[in-house]
Amino acid sequence: MKPSNIEPPNAVQRPAPQKKSHVLKNLLLDILLTGIALVIFALFHHVLPRQQTSMGIVIENPYKRPTQVQTAEPEDSGRSSIALPDGARLIASAGSSDLSLSSRSGGRQKTQWSVPTGKGGSALTSGDATEDEIEDDTPMWEKFPEKYTDTVVETDTSYTSPNISISVEEITTPDGRITYYLADIYVKDIESFQSALARNTYGTGFRDDIADMAQSAGALIAINGDYYGNTNEGVVIRNGVIYRANPTDCDVCVLYFDGTMRVMPGSDFDVQEAIEDGAWQAWTFGPALLDGQGGAISSFATTGRIISANPRTAIGYYEPGHYCMIVVDGRGESAGITLPELSQLFEDLGCRAAYNLDGGNSSIMVFQGDIINQPSGGGRESSDALLIREVNGDV
Question: Whole-model pTM?
């Protein structure tokens, strides 16, 4: 008689031993595949270089020096450090009353940015942009004659020519805690104050050494910029080309063709006004380091980690034609500087406006081809740089 395969009614049903192991393997496989997908996504969106769509709006400089108007050829416009995007076209002149961003805009239209993006914040309130109360309307090329020389004169810490004056100091605070590098800059032509893009390309993931960008552009002095390529947020105007104008709750700094500089909350930036007012450069990082009257700011709308002592890069504005660049060393013999301390430094210097750029390992200053500060971690590549250079073959 064959044994029965039917278990007794009270027999306990036990899963096969391999079933739990099979479920665990499937779970681990799902986690692994998800991780690989996330890595690929991060590489594509944040690491691998890829060009971004550019607005391609070019703004004309209405403040050309008389000698430039007479001698400059069209191809020598002072914008040689940056390539215009494919399809870029001149659609507006600064100060024009008949402007449109594109055929879709339907004429004058103010950008409405009411929803913060969460990247940062502003210590300024809406409408509290830098107030330029300078009454002197002397053209930039006629100002500060005592700062320039008839021929190029170079030293280890300075450069002067008929068009540019740069002096660089290494300064350590009396307590020995902080070391920073201050570049005092005068220019006759705002087109000497340029930006450079890594690999001369606008997009995400393009990075280069600040020293290499400076050399390619023929820069006399260069610092790192706002690392625009690390995000799709905010405003990117480089050498008169509007590449991007996306919503941001960060402060925006705009340098205009007339030499003025304004720092404003991101919600106050308007593309059409930028065209009408003649924007030459615009950066999105921040925060603003001075209030609308040039006073120091003690409270910032950001995290304690960002406010605390770090290596820093920042720019300052005195009046049209007169600017400064500051790079602060940190995380080594120099402790770095807090945002309130940096703000107070710019007030003490007498600047009307000042703006914080990318910092940390990015903070680098290059003068006459050499990195003159001590970058944290040996420095790192960036997507862009700010620089001063001779233009139009004037020297």
Answer: 0.78
